[in-house]
Amino acid sequence: MQSIRDRLENILSRLASRAADEKVYTKLYAEAARAAADASDARKRAGVTLGPLDGT
Q: 19 falls in which pLDDT band (50, 70, 90)?
């Protein structure tokens, strides 16, 4: 099973490959997203989540 961070990195990679051709967003907060993904993974490892959508 992929971690939330792994899924996020996949998404960020796909966005970066399209960014030059398509302006689909104005600002991307990659570092904040990475921090949130890491926090979600840590909660999951500890057996505590914010709910079923934690990390999505």
A: low
